[in-house]
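User: Fold this one for me? It's Type-5 uracil-DNA glycosylase.
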Amino acid sequence: MRGVPPGAPGFPAASAPRAHPLRELDTVLTTCRACPRLVAWREETARVRRRAFADQDYWARPVPGFGPPDAALVIVGLAPAAHGGNRTGRMFTGDPSGDALYAALHSLGLASRPTATHRGDGLELSGVRITAPVHCAPPDNRPTTTERDTCRPWLARELALLRPTLRAIVVLGAFGWQALLPVLAGDGWLLPRPRPAFGHGAEAWAAAPDGGHRIPLLGCYHPSRRNMSTRTLTPAMLRQVLARGARLAGLPSGG
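Assistant: Here's what I get for Type-5 uracil-DNA glycosylase.
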């Protein structure tokens, strides 16, 4: 499948497995146009901008993962927000979900700043990488199953490149949990049977296919504006799960 154009459905499956190192994966990923509905939405959102951002140029491309290539803890979300990551070009940056997530990471000593406003704002993560199963902003924050599956090779390759240092995964929301399990299974990780169900505070372990270390998968409600405003998820609840993930990953933190 060499030479597959970025707009073809098979582009992620053809391009992701060949990408190395992680920075190359991030670069190739941003050229993807494999899902017509997502491409149309991300670009339309950039044309019809929210009034607060009317003077800004939107990223309007797939948003790569954010964090060091030797991260021990991976955080898996859902997809970029239309006026957050789709605007700024960085995961959980410029939206209320990011405000909650980075404040919690900063309180644990895992982020250099408590806020994320734009690329180049000086924010750095320590031992943590943030990614998502879908890299383009979807209408109503709801990717289709076809879009999720088309995007899957990017996440699979990202986790494969992180495997030497990966020690724990925190998943924000049921969509990310359900998307992650097939990725791990497809890469040979041994998962519990029956497949673990998502829940806030859920914890399951996956065994490496080569007989190496096991990694914990931790569930956490997504820090969406709705979840935070209804207190379905509180800052303390978010911090508790992230602190647990950091400890299991062997990261020094304030948790």
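One thing worth pointing out: Residues 11-248 form a domain with the Uracil-DNA Glycosylase, subunit E fold (CATH 3.40.470.10).
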